[in-house]
Amino acid sequence: MPSSARNSAFFGPSLVIVGLACQEVGASIAVTLFPTVGPVGMVTLRLVFSALILLLVSRPALRNRSAIAWRTAVAFGLSLSGMNVCFYLALERLPLGTTVTIEFLGPLVLSVVAGRRWLSLVWALLAALGVVMLGGGMSDLDPIGVMFALAAAALWVGYILFAQATGVHFRGVGGLAIATAIGSIPTIPLALAATGVAPFVDPGVLLAGLGIALLSSAIPYALELTALRRVTASAFAILLSLAPAIAAAAGFVILGQNLGLVSLAGIACVIAASIGAIRTQPRPAPPEAPGDG
Questions:
Q1: Residue 236 domain-assigned (yes or no)
Q2: Is residue 185 part of a domain?
Q3: Which residues, 6 or more positions from 35, have their beta carbon under 8 angstroms from its beta carbon?
Q4: How many domains does the chain have?
Q5: At 241, is the pLDDT very low, low, confident or very high (cuts 50, 70, 90)?
Q6: What percent of the chain is modeled with pLDDT above 90?
Q7: Residue-number span of the structural domain to which 144 is assigned
Q8: How does the average pLDDT of the chain come out, rounded?
Q9: In principle, which of 1, 10, 159, 181 could form an S-S bond with 51, CB 3.0–4.6 Å?
Q10: Confidence of residue 285 (pLDDT cuts 50, 70, 90)
Q11: Distance between CA atoms of residues 111 and 274, nearest Å
Q12: CA torsion angle for 67, 69, 71, 73 (degrees, to 10)?
């Protein structure tokens, strides 16, 4: 790639958008495998292959880790696997764009709480309006699917908090690799109990699982790491707010999931609330100069 393209102001944002597109395309393909391996089986394939890729890339040191480092990694891994299980169980009952929008309420609520301003209430109300519009007052959505999507949203908050804590104890992607491996363990017996062993020894299913792991985890993470060197953290967060819209587009193109104008307006409200919450977060106070009272 020419250096002029890499230095372009649009290069960093474009990496984030491509990463989001990869994630949602991966989720769309995952839905097509539900009849074969089920939602939990899909989570198992994604986490196991993601863990193998991340462990090969990072090769984290396992010795001489403190007890708190391991406890944090375990909490991170369990929140990661729980979030993915709930997300895929929701996808079994709801359109992709709807599921991602409801799940996105997790980090949105975290941003609103962190804001601690009167405007935070405005963003919270706008997001609530968006969710109501999305489901026609919730009457048009499968209630169990909504519960799973809300559970994924709550677990996403834990994922963010434990990811930050894990980063203190492990370098680079080492903590993520260990957490992903830990998170995959409890999903394996659940997947085998649901569908048996046969689907997981099918070369076609394994190849599809590897592809989904690359699309949903490995490629987006690599693109996001590269993008973070070129865009500010706030701009990065705003770009991530486009996830519901990209998910709706992927669901329409790949799965034929058509959302009405009211639902699309609801997604737009949630995106606007997320961007507003990020843009109006209070900036940290600058450190006092030496000798200041």
A1: yes
A2: yes
A3: none
A4: 1
A5: confident
A6: 29
A7: 10-279
A8: 81
A9: 181
A10: very low
A11: 8
A12: -150
State the Cα torsion 56-25-136-102 to the nearest 10°.
Answer: 20
Residues 236-241: what's their mean pLDDT?
A: 74
Cβ-based burial of 152 (10 A; exposed 0-12, middle 13-18, buried ≥19): buried
Q: Are 122 and 63 in contact (CB under 8 A)?
A: no
Task: Give the model's pLDDT for residue 115.
Answer: 57
- In order, the DSSP letters of 239-287 are HHTTHHHHHHHHHHHHH--PPPHHHHHHHHHHHHHHHHHHHTSPPPPPP
Residue keyed to tokens 């863990």: 51
Radius of gyration of the chain (CA): 20
Summary count for the chain: helices (H), strands (E): 15, 0
Return the closest-CA partner of residue 153 out of 112, 211, 120, 209: 112
pLDDT at 289: 37
Calpha distance 76→82 (Å, rounded): 10
* Nearest-angstrom CA–CA distance, 109 and 125: 11
What token pair was written down for 189?
């017996």
- Per-residue model confidence as pLDDT tens digits over 83-131: 999 999 999 999 888 888 888 777 777 666 665 566 667 777 777 777 7
pLDDT at position 8 over 70: no
Concatenating the DSSP letter of every residue in 11-78 gives: HHHHHHHHHHHHHHHHHHHHHHTHHHHHHHHHHHHHHHHHHHHHHHHH----TT--HHHHHHHHHHHH
Domain annotation covers residue 46: yes
Indicate the burial class of 121 (C-beta count within 10 angstroms; 0-12, 13-18, 19 or more).
exposed
